[in-house]
Amino acid sequence: MNARGKAGRLALAALVVTALTLMGAPAAIAQDSGATATPAGPYIECCMNSDFINVRPGPGVEYEAVGVLVTGQTAEALGRSIGGDWIQIRYSPVAAGLAWVYAPFVRLFTLGAVLRIIEPPPTATPRVTPTIDPTFAAQFSSVLPTRLPTFTPATPPTPVSLTTNGGAASGGFPPALVLIALAGVGLFGALASNFVGRR
Predict the structure, then answer these.
(1) Mean pLDDT across the stretch 93-108?
(2) Which region, left, alpha or beta, applies to residue 112 given φ > 0 means left and ψ of -120 to 50 means alpha?
(3) Least enclosed by CB within 10 Å: which of 15, 68, 83, 161?
(4) Are 113 and 42 in contact (CB under 8 A)?
(5) Per residue in 156-195, pLDDT tens?
């Protein structure tokens, strides 16, 4: 066998060993991230609506996330919350080996078993209780609210009524007298023009 043939076989063998090593790497990564091989009992498979889901120490978003499961990962299902919307799984990366996932985001395979109801662990208490500085709060306690303008309706106008005394407006001439005077002036003008026209 020539040197080229030996070198080609050695390169092919190295390529096969590298490929086998890389093929085994995702399984090792999955084991480190809490995923297991498909369990014999009830199990969940990730994910329904996203590429990954958060894993939490308790059944609720008030518990801080401790890890993730990615699409295709499975984990043994141990129980469920009272409402059934969270599932407890076996998750090796955390100290107790138990964690919770949100049920609508995973596929549950019960394999004929019924998941038992598990009481949630207590939520973590904050290390520091927030307090309000009394001096700072006192600055806002003396502020009076701004009064809004109010609507005051205008007084309605009083109606004017005209009263007549015997057909004559108070303080003026009777209308009939004015008409008679105008008729007399018109008659006088007509007579005067007739008289002047005869001359």
Answers:
(1) 91
(2) left
(3) 161
(4) yes
(5) 888 877 666 655 445 566 778 878 888 888 888 888 887 7
- Alpha-carbon gap, residue 173 to 192, rounded angstroms: 27
Q: What kind and span of H or E run contains 116? A: strand 116-117
**pLDDT over 70 at 18, yes or no:** no
pTM: 0.46
Topology of the domain covering 43-111: SH3 type barrels. (2.30.30)
Q: Are 66 and 31 in contact (CB under 8 A)?
A: no
CB contact at 8 A, 103 and 80: yes
Per-residue confidence at 199, pLDDT binned at 50, 70, 90? low
Domain spans in the chain, listed from the N-terminal domain onward: 43-111
DSSP 59-95: SSTTSPP-EEEETT-EEEEEEE-TTSSEEEEE-TTSS
- Residue 118: name the closest of 54, 42, 38 by CA: 42
